[in-house]
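User: I'm curious whether this sequence folds into something compact or stays loose and floppy. Could you predict its structure so I can see for myself?
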Amino acid sequence: MRRSLTADVAAGLEMPPIFCPLEAAINPARRAVERRAVGWLDGVGLCADARERAKVIATHSADFYSRFAPHADEDLLLPAVLWVYWGFAFDDACCDAGHYSARPAEFVPMALRVQRALERPVPASADDRYAAAVHDIGTRFRWAGTPVQFQRFAAAHRGWLSGVAWQIADQARGHLPDLEDYLTMRLHSAGGEPTFAMLEIAAGAEVPAAEMDLPAVRALTEMAIAVAALDNDRHSLSREMGQNPTSQNIYTVLLGRNGGSLAAATRTAAGLRDRVLLRFMALREQLRPRLSAPGRGYVDGLAFGVRGNAEWGLRVPRYLGDDTAAEVTWAERPMDDSTDPIPVPTISWWWDV
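Assistant: Here's the prediction. I'll summarize afterward.
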């Protein structure tokens, strides 16, 4: 499998265009927020050297989250953007690559120290650069949001780190999960939980617990995470295969399950992703009129995030290298338009709410 996968990528596999008929928008404050965020990066000393600084800035994190929260006030958008820059830096150095990326026994205590730095309201002299920076971000979130919003974000952040720990444990033992386990893990390890948890902070409106905890709202949140995670697997395929041909992604999982070619796996993955998106769109349309204004703003933010993540991933140097001027083509129809539940227990309940 490893040889055929890298050979397909080297041959220049043509990925199917992305189906995403959701509305696109971007916050007009993105340039100002980007300037402020770069100043913050330099001020907190997050980057070890000029090369790392350039790599982090090239994530275009301000552009990324400005697509999730197109109507947010600049001062409320800024902390979310800072976390995205921080998240990419931490992910690259400690999760996908680097010393901890195949050492779960070392990753877990390091990650929990980082989580603790986010949660505690006071700094600590022993914090490393990642812990110190995320503590600063946590302080900003406490200012920008309510206690409920901050605790929701902290819980989502903990869920992300637990998913990464699972991913690293698999990497350490050379284990390729089946589709059920991969999707379960990816709902956490992709970072979608904290990314979407920042929506209500950026919007400046707390979603009532009676709405946020509805199974249907939880399903919409998980579907948005799943679609974005599968899009990210698509965006990063060539990059990952160049770094590690045995990386865990939806394509290696499908190849391990079904065999065949990478081209066939890309079609299967696109079909699975499109079925989830269609269910997301139908459920959102059904649920939205019954929600409060903050609740409607939140589910609208999920939709902006799905579209924004796809837009960003098709343009960002992180995935495209120097080819960021390539024309973006969108699919006119889904790869699979079935409305039947996907028969994978970890996600099939999305069709029952």
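Summary: The chain is about 65% helix and 0% strand. The chain has a mean pLDDT of 93.
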